[in-house]
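User: Run a structure prediction on this.
Assistant: Running it now.
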Amino acid sequence: MTIITKIITFSIIGGVVTAIAAPVVLPALGAVGLLGAAGTGTAISTLSGAALTSASCAAVTGTIAGTSAVVTAAGGVVGGVAGAACGSKKGE
């Protein structure tokens, strides 16, 4: 596997994993109080269910769609870096 192939593969995997994990991880961060308050002024940590998920995502970028895009892109970048690190070993 060439270094370019590894970078692309890890980027795709990183993007997919983070896109799937975001709706779980962000509400968990909101529930423990790390994301502050919702647009209404209510502390995100006091919310639950869909309200917690929406407010947590909105706290990151302002919109749920924006958060999904940012989290997926960040996962792709991290995956690409991991792919480059794996592909840069001597002897390959």
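The helical segments are 3-31, 49-61, 64-87.
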